[in-house]
Every structure is written in structure tokens, then in C-alpha cells.
Write a structure and sequence with these properties.
The protein has helices spanning 2-14, 16-35, 43-68, 76-98, 103-131, 136-155, 165-172, 177-204, 212-234, 241-259, 261-271, 273-278, 283-309, 320-330, 342-361, 366-390; strands at 160-161, 311-312. The chain is an all-alpha fold. The model has no long low-confidence stretch (mean pLDDT 84).
Length: 391
């Protein structure tokens, strides 16, 4: 028992920033619940809150690895917006004209084209950044302007409809209550299997193993959160399709970041670029791969955006890059590179969405919402720099 307590204290000390953001999110929810007399945690608002955070969360998931490598991407918001208008354009003016009686094929082709556009654009940017060694800030700033022009060219200043029923289901659909509980059960089982598999791998390779009771308690806690979420949203319309897609994406990218060379090398590059190079890491190749992954997630985000809004507009994606970057920093991703988690970025994105939702429910003017978000972001980065300096 004493060893468990000692280990727990050590973990809290080493991961205090992660625990701090979780406590911050809990504080935000409790505060807004009190100020709105419980309306904030109503099933409808929780459902809307999680749906609204998905677009920027897809961007934040990819942005973690970009920042971890010591880079930045200012173009992701506009790229998601550009993808959304491309998808809308193909649905409204091209595929829909040639295949009006085949909505399934129309939707599939539109989604694939959108994801392809996002991936190819980021691959181009990643190649310029990694092989031509032009700073990512400059390249992606230029990319943001190019995409802003591209949106105007595609839309010609008009709104393009993308509200075909099947396509709209991607971001506006729900799972039935039964399917939602089945999905939750599968996720909980996978959590426990992953926990035991992780323990076996640590033993196999000679790493220290967390006390079993702590691993079990942590997994039970996560399982309880999933159950509470499903119970809450089932009281409204059920688990949202985009939230399910985000959960799957987060799990896959988290696995990539911790269990594949691409992820491990990204952390090595951000932690000490010269040491990584001397260790034989191909920095150019791995940075390129990270930006390609970012493009894939921008494509998914743009598809979800078009489906959620139902239109491709000239303002599509405006400001999303700032929310994505802020979500990463709030979630513990280091501004100096080398540290950050996918889970943290999701929590950071949820904090940003929670603040926006709560302030809107309290009718706080938009100007003060921006001011508050800016102050919180600066404080989060300051804490990161301060703690890293102390270490």
C-alpha cells in the first residue's frame, strides 16, 4: 500500500500539468452550471457542446504532432474551409448533376475528394518545409493566404449548398440508444484490454510497471465517464456521429504517436533536433510525414464542417487554426516542442468549446469572449514555460 501511495505521489508530481487542465475543465463546468442554474449540463447543451468541438478537435489532434516537432501550421483553418467548399461544390454542381439518383456514390466520392485535397495540400507544404528548409511559420502563412483566395475562387462570393440528406448525416446524425450503449461497451472492453496489453509490454521490455490497482482505477474512471456521457446524450437524441468519428480518430492518432516510428521520432526531433539527427533519424522525411497526417485530418475536418453547416461559405474555417493551436497549448503541448498528448489536445479543445458555450449562454459580448480566451491561452503557455524551466 505504501509503495502504491509513493508511486501515486510521483505520478501526480510528474504529470501535474495534465491533472491541472482536467481540474480546470471541471471547474469551468461547475461554474457555468451554477451560473446558468443547471441548464449548462442539460442533455441538449452537452450534445451540442461535443458536436461543436469536433471540427477544431480534428485539427488539434493533428496539430499536436506538428507542434511537437517544433513547427506550426497557420493554414489548417483555411484548409478545412477550402475542403468544405470543394466538397460542397462537387456535390452541388458536379456529382449531383451527373449522378442525381446515386446519393451513396455521390457522398463517398465527395468525401474522398475532400480528404485527398487536404492531404495533397499539406504534403506540398510539408515538402517545402522539410526539404527546402523554409520556416513552417512562413510557408503556412503563405498557404493560409493561398487558401483564402482559393475559397473565393471556388465560391465566387456565393454560398454553395451541401445539404443532401446522406451527406448531412455525417455530422448531424445520431446513433440509436441501443447502438450507443453497444459502442460504449465495446470501447470499455477495449480500454481494459489495452490496459492489460500495455502492462504486458512493459514487463516484456523491462520497463517499470504501474501498480495494478492504479491502472484498474484509472480504467474504471474512464469507463465511468464514457457511461455518463452516453447516458446524458441518450436523454436527448443519442451519441453524435461526428463525436464517434473523433473518438476513433483520436485513438488511431494516439497509437501512431506512441507506438510507431513516426510518432516516436516526432518527439525525438522536438526534444532535441541535433541529437535525433546524430541518432540516425531522417528529420526531413519524418517532418514531411507529420504534415501529411495533418493534411489528412484537415480533410476530415473540412468534410465534417461542410456536413455540419450544410453549406460551403466564403467564411469557412476562419479562425479555426487559432482554436486548434490554443487547444493544444491548453492541453499541455509544449510551445517549445517535444511534449504533448492527443488526449490533452482533446481536453483543451473541450475547454475552449466549454468556455464559448458558457459565455454565450450568459450573453457575454463576443469582444469579451475573445479577451478571456486570449488571457487563458497566455496563462497556459506561461505555466508550460515556467514548469519546463524548473525541470
Amino acid at each position: 500500500m505504501g509503495d502504491t501511495i509513493t508511486y501515486l505521489k510521483k505520478q501526480i508530481k510528474e504529470n501535474i500539468q495534465t491533472y491541472a487542465i482536467i481540474l480546470a475543465m471541471a471547474f469551468v463546468w461547475v461554474l457555468f452550471s451554477f451560473l446558468t442554474e443547471g441548464r449548462y449540463i442539460g442533455s441538449q447543451n452537452i450534445s451540442n457542446l461535443f458536436r461543436q468541438m469536433t471540427v477544431t478537435s480534428f485539427l488539434a489532434v493533428g496539430m499536436v504532432l506538428v507542434i511537437v516537432t517544433g513547427n506550426i501550421d497557420l493554414s489548417v483553418g483555411k484548409l478545412a474551409g477550402f475542403v468544405s467548399v470543394i466538397v460542397a461544390k462537387f456535390q452541388a454542381d458536379i456529382w449531383f448533376d451527373f449522378m442525381p439518383d446515386n446519393p451513396i456514390l455521390t457522398t463517398i466520392l465527395s468525401v474522398l475528394i475532400g480528404i485527398g485535397v487536404g492531404t495533397i495540400f499539406e504534403m506540398i507544404q510539408g515538402y517545402v518545409i522539410s526539404y527546402f528548409r523554409i520556416p513552417s511559420f512562413i510557408v503556412t502563412l503563405g498557404g493560409m493566404w493561398i487558401l483564402a483566395g482559393g475559397i473565393l475562387v471556388v465560391t465566387q462570393g456565393k454560398t454553395i449548398p451541401a445539404n443532401q440528406p446522406l451527406f448531412s448525416f455525417i455530422a448531424q446524425g445520431y446513433l440509436s440508444q441501443t447502438v450507443g450503449w453497444v459502442a460504449a461497451g465495446i470501447v470499455i472492453v477495449l480500454l481494459f484490454l489495452a490496459m492489460f496489453q500495455n502492462r504486458r509490454n512493459k514487463v516484456k521490455y523491462g520497463f517499470s510497471v504501474t501498480p495494478l490497482v492504479l491502472d484498474v482505477l484509472k480504467t474504471i474512471f474512464l469507463s465511468a465517464l464514457i457511461a455518463v456521457y452516453v447516458y446524458t446524450v441518450n436523454k436527448y437524441n443519442g451519441v453524435q456521429i461526428p463525436v464517434l468519428l473523433l473518438a476513433i480518430t483520436a485513438v488511431v492518432v494516439s497509437y501512431v504517436s506512441t507506438n510507431t516510428p513516426v510518432g516516436r521520432y516526432a518527439y525525438a526531433i522536438g526534444g532535441n533536433r541535433e541529437a535525433a539527427r546524430l541518432s540516425g533519424v531522417n528529420i526531413q522525411k519524418n517532418v514531411f510525414k507529420v504534415f501529411a497526417l495533418m493534411g489528412l485530418l484537415c480533410g476530415i475536418s473540412g468534410v465534417v464542417l461542410a456536413s455540419y453547416v450544410g453549406y460551403g461559405t466564403i467564411a469557412a474555417g476562419s479562425g479555426y487554426e487559432l482554436d486548434a493551436i490554443a487547444s493544444c497549448f491548453l492541453g499541455g503541448t509544449s510551445a517549445m516542442g517535444g511534449a504533448g498528448t492527443i488526449f490533452g489536445a482533446i481536453v483543451g479543445s473541450l475547454i475552449m468549446a466549454s468556455l464559448t458555450s458558457g459565455l454565450q449562454m450568459l450573453n457575454v459580448p463576443a469582444a469579451w469572449q475573445y479577451v478571456l480566451k486570449g488571457i487563458i491561452l497566455i496563462m497556459a503557455v506561461y505555466v508550460d514555460v515556467y514548469m519546463k524551466k524548473n525541470r
